[in-house]
């Protein structure tokens, strides 16, 4: 069993923050994507500022410990597929990943 996996989406508002860079919209898209796939709503969590907004919008996947930076709307299905749908998800401790 793959266990609990969650996607944390930074949607922090404010000038130069992820929310302003599209994070708020991404949060909505992630929630729609998990709903469409019949995954639990708790799979997507609104994240607070992780002090990486210079690379924002940022998305973090637990427990894979994978960060995605400069995430675009078209990346959402792929991130959900990769981390929430596939069994035997990868352990990527300490890695920063880009699409
Ligand atoms: S606002 Fe997203 S990392 Fe700071």
Automatic annotation (TrEMBL):
CDD domains: TRX_Fd_family. It comes from the Bacteria. This is Ferredoxin. It comes from Rubrobacter xylanophilus.
